[in-house]
Specification:
- The protein contains eight helices and nine strands.
- The chain is α/β, with parallel strands linked by helices and about 290 residues long.
- It is globular and about 60 Å long.
- The strands form three sheets. It has a four-stranded mixed beta sheet with strand order 2-3-5-4. The protein has a three-stranded mixed beta sheet with strand order 1-7-6, covered by helices on one side. It has a two-stranded antiparallel ribbon with strand order 8-9.
């Protein structure tokens, strides 16, 4: 039996930015080593606001760069052995499945020189919606490029950017079956649904639905994260019969570019709900999910 999915999605949405000059000739985003870049005190303040979850990291293949203190032949060999395994990238805050979007700047091979400027400078390991909001607010206030990353599967490269602040949703957890769900503010009849946080991947959601004799519309790859999947429309092998995954969403919880946490559905914030269910690759989202 197929049931629609209830998705509570803490999801900052923004249009991809570049380092191109704005109309007044100034860079549109702050860049490290320039006066516009936030100070160490400001980064420390952000770290405090996210419960110490602001990370400054090296990419996993940095262990292959002999010029770095983390260099290790044994560690490099291990990273190389895992490089084609999607689960390895999903569990790393910086790594992505398609490293060409990072200009192949740090690959696990002997003699590599890692260009660390091709990666986010800081990562928020978001474990609650307020961490997402803090990251969105900080990036907006200080004009820092913002990316949001779930599993790093994005074939369009939207989950990574050089010299950026990244919000990593992998540890936003929470999955609950609801037998009689009604969207907030709606008077509609109840329906079975799943409430899922953004850090879950499809195989976890499939298992939860199967435990209740149900299924959801999902992708063929069980390792894909729900946030990017839904906000890309959510094509499925069963879409011919049941539509896209985005068509079956009952409710989202989102973080807007203004830093507001909103519940959106067919009965409230209907314009945003319509937009989210008709998303395309020109819109950048992701962040806490409930399904």
């Amino acid at each position: 039996m197929l049931h629609s999915a209830y998705i509570l999605l803490i999801l900052p949405v923004f249009i991809p930015a570049t380092y191109a000059a704005s109309q007044n000739g100034q860079p549109c985003k702050a860049h490290p080593d320039t006066p516009a870049w936030p100070s160490k005190v400001q980064w420390a303040s952000l770290n405090s606001s996210v419960s110490g979850q602001l990370l400054a990291l090296l990419p996993p293949a940095a262990v292959c760069d002999s010029s770095l203190s983390v260099f290790s032949n044994a560690s490099c060999a291990f990273v190389a052995s895992q490089w084609t395994i999607s689960d390895f990238h999903a569990k790393d805050p910086l790594s992505v499945d398609q490293p060409n979007w990072q200009n192949d700047a740090c690959l696990p091979k002997p003699g590599v020189h890692c260009d660390l400027q091709q990666f986010p400078r800081y990562v928020i390991n978001a474990t609650k919606p307020t961490h997402v909001k803090a990251g969105v607010d900080f990036a907006r206030t200080h004009k820092v490029r913002l990316v949001v990353r779930g599993t790093g599967h994005d074939y369009l490269g939207r989950s990574t950017a050089p010299d950026s602040l990244s919000i990593w949703t992998h540890n936003l957890r929470g999955l609950q079956w609801e037998s009689h769900f009604v969207a907030n503010g709606c008077l509609a009849a109840s329906t079975p649904a799943i409430n899922v946080a953004a850090g879950h991947r499809m195989f976890e959601i499939y298992d939860a639905a199967a435990a209740h004799g149900s299924m959801i519309i999902g992708g063929e790859d069980p390792d894909v994260g729900l946030g990017g999947y839904l906000t890309g429309g959510g094509h499925s092998p069963i879409s011919g019969a049941y539509g896209l995954a985005a068509d079956n969403v009952l409710e989202f919880e989102v973080v807007t570019p203004a830093g507001d946490i909103k519940t959106i559905n067919a009965c409230q914030n209907r314009d945003l709900f319509f937009a989210f269910r008709g998303v395309s690759a020109s819109i950048r989202p992701y962040c806490a999910l409930h399904h």
